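Tutorial handout. Part one gives the primary structure; part two gives the three-dimensional structure as tokens.
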Amino acid sequence: MNLKYYQKIINQNLGKFFDGLKLFESKNPLIKEQLKLLRKFCLLPGKRLRPILAIVAFKAVSSYSIGSGQTRFLKDIFLPILSLELYHNYTLIHDDIYDEDIVRRGKPTCYSLLQKWFKKKYKKIPYSGNLYKNSQSRFGVVSGFIGGKILRTLVNLPIFQSNISFRKKIEILKLFEELDISDNFGQAVDLFFEKENKITQDDYFEMVKLKTGGLFKTSVELGAILDNATHFQRRALKNYAKNLAYVFQIKDDLLDLSIGGEKGRGIGSDIKKGKKTLLLIFSLKKAGLKDKELIFKIIGKEEASVKEIETIIKLYHRLGAVKFCQNIARQKMEKALFWLNKLKSETNQESYRFLKGLIFFVFERKK
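Part two.
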């Protein structure tokens, strides 16, 4: 399966989807700016991993012949799959506000661009509210949340516009409702973790299951629903996706430590934010009193220097946290392979090879 081919089609259809939003035409300058930013944000270069996962899950259990009509394939299958990319980007927009990040994929975040738009249009306006430092900050955050809410609403449109049966539409909409619950609970757990130091490995995996795992699971389930997969096929795909999500998140934690893999936000961004990564959880468990004092002095320090970040990274290596995380990621990779192999006799070889290769791609990725 050609990854770049499907990335190209997803990008093309995302562009067409936004261009066709006549329902939301408005003369209001903020609405115009919101839709322009949302289109641009969603079309930033990305892996498109979630919709591609759905496509491959569909093909893995499907007898559907794409050759029977490319147009029908795009309308029946590709259109509802776009909802996954829209949902993923909605969560990223809100995550950037939660984390107060000003860069995403090497570009300014949506709320920071809206702050600049406000400043250019209104200059400085007196502000005396309780939550924000100035009117520009308030406008960026509030309009950023509104933008995310707009995108979440748009998630439903490709599902309604597709030619799939009413039953499948309801089932897919139910999937996204369940995903909303999972993602919001995961976000709440992540917020709770910020100031809580007694976080266990099990707590970490629960958070990953709710946040990262929820969307991965929804992706394969959506693909399975589109072709009436059996209960066993759906179970195997869900367990595959759950373990793939663990590998993805642990790798994400590790990428924060290396130049070139710093997720577009600068090396050590998780350290500065005080994120309870598996690296930190393991290190706090193994550290002596002196090392713990050093960790608590630097972790969560937004203005931490390059030297301080390097100190924590060296500490992670010395305490064995990096090696531990790599081993856990490898174990989860093997579990994903286990569930994929259970499905091997019920899937086509092209899809099997792709899903197998995807595990190694996620495990070995550099960004």
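Part three, for discussion. Strands lie at 103-104, 107-108. The radius of gyration is 22 Å.
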